[in-house]
């Protein structure tokens, strides 16, 4: 902070106040690039993921983050948990969080 104030007073004394303008412009451009290339796409992806999780229904085929395909057979009310059945074996039913679903194929889509 002290160095910044010293730099301000030195440039004010010499009359060269235009040297801060390129620095300010560069910072503004950097922040804009950061927002448009990192923050905005991430927010859009989060919106899509929330919409995907809200549309889950019993009977939907899902792909989990672990890479397993399964079918939703039950949803626990009031919680963020679904019961997914994997493969043809009816004994392979695993409870998992909704957030572990990355793709959904609707049961009624043909």
Structure report:
This protein has two helices and five strands, in the order ααβββββ. It is of the alpha+beta class and 110 residues long. The chain has a domain at 55-105: SH3 type barrels, CATH 2.30.30. The chain has a five-stranded antiparallel β-sheet, covered by helices on one side.
Helices, strands, pairings?
Elements: H1 2-14, H2 20-54, E1 61-64, E2 69-75, E3 81-86, E4 93-97, E5 101-105
Antiparallel strand pairs: 1-2, 1-5, 2-3, 3-4
Output the keywords:
alpha+beta, rod-shaped, 110 residues, five-stranded antiparallel sheet, SH3 type barrels, 5 strands, 2 helices
CATH architecture type of the domain at 55-105 = Roll
**Approximately how much beta-strand content do the residues carry?**
15-25%
Strand order, biggest sheet? 4-3-2-1-5
Sheet having the most strands = 5 strands, antiparallel
Helix and strand string, N-terminal first?
Answer: HHEEEEE
Secondary structure: helix percent: 40-55%
Oligomeric grouping of the chains: single chain
CATH topology name of the domain at 55-105, in short, is SH3 type barrels
Number of strands: 5
Q: What is the terminal-to-terminal distance?
A: 64 Å
Q: What average pLDDT do the residues reach? A: 84
- The helix count comes to 2
Query: Which structural category do the helix and sheet elements fall into?
Result: alpha+beta
Could you say which overall geometry the principal axes of the C-alpha atoms support?
Answer: rod-shaped
Radius of gyration using CA atoms only = 26 Å
Low-confidence stretches: none
Determine and state the CATH class of the domain at 55-105. Mainly Beta
């Amino acid at each position: 902070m002290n160095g910044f104030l010293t730099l301000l007073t030195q440039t004010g004394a010499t009359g060269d106040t235009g040297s801060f303008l390129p620095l300010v412009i560069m910072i503004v451009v950097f922040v804009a690039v950061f927002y448009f290339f990192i923050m905005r796409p991430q927010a859009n992806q989060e919106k899509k993921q929330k919409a995907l999780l809200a549309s889950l229904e019993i009977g939907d085929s899902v792909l989990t983050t672990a890479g397993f395909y399964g079918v939703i057979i039950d949803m626990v009310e009031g919680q963020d948990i679904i019961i997914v059945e994997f493969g043809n074996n009816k004994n392979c039913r695993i409870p998992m969080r909704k957030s572990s679903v990355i793709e959904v194929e609707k049961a009624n889509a043909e």
